[in-house]
Amino acid sequence: MFDKVLIANRGEIALRIHRACREMGIRTVAVHSTADAEAMHVRLADESVCIGPAPARDSYLNKAAILSAATITNADAIHPGYGFLSENADFASMVEEHGFTFIGPSPDHIRMMGDKITAKQAAKQAGLPVVPGSEGSIASEDEALTVAEGIGYPVLIKATAGGGGKGMKVADSPEALREAFRLARSEAKAAFGNPDVYMEKYLGRPRHIEIQILADNHGNVVHLGERDCSLQRKHQKLLEEAPSPALNADQRARIGRIACEAIAKLGYRNAGTLEFLYENGEFYFIEMNTRLQVEHPVTEMISGIDLVREQLRVATGAPLGYGQADIRFSGHAVECRINAENPETFAPSPGRIGGYHAPGGLGVRVDSGLYAGYRVPSHYDSMIAKLIVHGTSRNECLMRLRRALGEFVVEGVQTTIPLHARIVNEPDFINGDYDIHWLEKFVAQRTE
Ligand code: MV4
Questions:
Q1: 323: burial class by Cβ within 10 Å (0-12, 13-18, 19+)?
Q2: Is 207 an annotated catalytic residue?
Q3: Structural domains in the chain?
Q4: Ligand 1: which residue has its CA nearest to atom 14?
Q5: Residue 374: per-residue pLDDT
């Protein structure tokens, strides 16, 4: 096992990784910007190194500073967390070139999945169902029209360098498509420096369901079930749950088996997530995330498997040591992402935390670096805590979640806790009757 791991991240995920390391007897190195000197993960880590000023590009995205920190502290491995450098193939190669272990997949797999066209082609070849669409990138308006003729309107233009919805355009007619093609290319060029786009059949009311996989360096692959991440606003997830209220055990086993076979074929290692759109009983692969995800705790709660521990174990070359048949899913889990934001306008609300009280009790987990007196910096993502609740049934989980939200006190900044409290009382949510557009409509109605 590693002796010392450097955690190349901040906030709740840095703390999450520290906790797994500490439980495994691994020493930790925190890196932080000047704005995060007082952060909880910095206080708890065995060592800490300041890697630069507040702006992320000068600190958490500063590859040389992070590698220097790993060198001077004599770390064995680097865990990138999520966001920042976690899906940067060049960083992963640099980590390995400097003699450290990158806790994640190979640079080649990160690169393959970072380009949405190569990702989709690889997924299709590995046997995953994909959305009908263009074979690769689309070079001209005329080609776009020909492809659209074949798959039928409405169609969606997506950026190959995209993800997160940037550069996406829907078109429901040839005239609209000419315009959408031009706009998508210029947006993609501006946002990613790469104008390449591809086309898919537009799915009108899908759910967003993703499958968690775990793979070792010996060809063993398991899946840890799905997460339903349909409750999003502007491509930011607010609440995730596992299992999905839309799937039964047979559907779960079927997509899980197909996912594992594909991951084994691709030779992928470490943790990863296959993202699907799910509509009318069918799955369509859209993207793969080659990192630990924000919402991983809901999977941990229903599987009893510590994903960060497993990432660390397989990164040393250890075999998984169990198979799919050994994994048992139990009960239901929901995660609420709590942001320091106005719950109506979503305007960021950084500042000093006054009173703080986190909920507790059976089945309640809070992943957060908050404490009374902590100052939420304005330079980073506004997520300040995740409330994860488990129950033996979905109903028990929701009853417990309402109770836990009611206990949560965060003073000094505005938070999205009141929004969560309303969502969990909505009949559509209680019935599991929602798709990827539900939350936007709910928020729009509320502010009318
Ligand atoms: C789609 C789609 C409908 N049809 N693809 C948005 C971000 C990117 N990851 C994929 N996205 C979508 N792809 C087809 N063919 C609708 C979306 C989409 C979406 C997907 C998941 C969660 C929330 C979403 C919100 C708007 C659009």
A1: exposed
A2: no
A3: 4-103 (3.40.50.20), 132-201 (3.30.1490.20), 207-447 (3.30.470.20)
A4: 202
A5: 98
